[in-house]
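Tutorial handout. Part one gives the primary structure; part two gives the three-dimensional structure as tokens.
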Amino acid sequence: MSAPILVLGATGKTGAPVVAELARRGAAHRAAKRRPLGEHDVLFDWDDPETWAAAAAEVETVYLVKPPLGPVVPVTEFFQRAPWVSRVVLLSELGRETKPATDPERAVELVVSAEGRRATILRPNWFFDNFGPHGGWGPAIRDSDTIRIPSGDAPLAWIDVRDVAEVAVRALLGEDLGEVDLSGPEPLTVAELAAAIGEAAGREVTHDDPTLSAYREELEVAGTDPRRVEYLMDLVTDAARRQFARTTPDLDALLGHPPRQLGEYVTEHAAYWRENAA
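Part two.
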């Protein structure tokens, strides 16, 4: 029997479809969860290092979704506790290769690639799914018909998490893809995204575009962890500077089919946004 693949973040945006695709293909895998219930589930909690080695026992390949805050120390310690892990597929973010080594997300990339590990680093663009049932902006769309992001008129080449998951599984099953940018085929502004959601949902959804300084102040006043503030401000500042406008020309080849586009996503989730509509 082949060694199981350990999927961290197995209930998350990309982890859940990765687990589903591995299961569909009949690949041995473990779904790391804080509350393991299913046949393939295993206990894993980034806040409890005692769970790490057991979850990774006999595992050679890991799909790594890093902890959201202060990721460098726990990721480093994870590999110290499970030194037998030899292949990693890391979910990172578009543009992190341009950041200094002190940037936490870039630092994780460097940790993953160290000590001879075979690493595929996935750097996806912003997800459509950030605005749906599992995304941070989904409730605001339903409650206030707005998407509040300080991105101005900058376009972003949004991508569907299912496309990210498919590329991840390709790497998990044996292909070393190296460093891979993953962007969708159609750069759209947040205002254009909002309009598409509104049309599908039968309600007017608009882009609420604060200044960067006002957005930072809102996060701080809300008591957001300072590390989270810096992370979010880095993302939205890069968005406003049009750093997320570039597409991935060979995404079709990576997927083996055309990438999913916004129209497909909003049609699938229109019922979610219709809730609470006046």
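Part three, for discussion. Residues 183 and 248 are 5 Å apart (CA to CA). The first strand starts at residue 5 and ends at 7.
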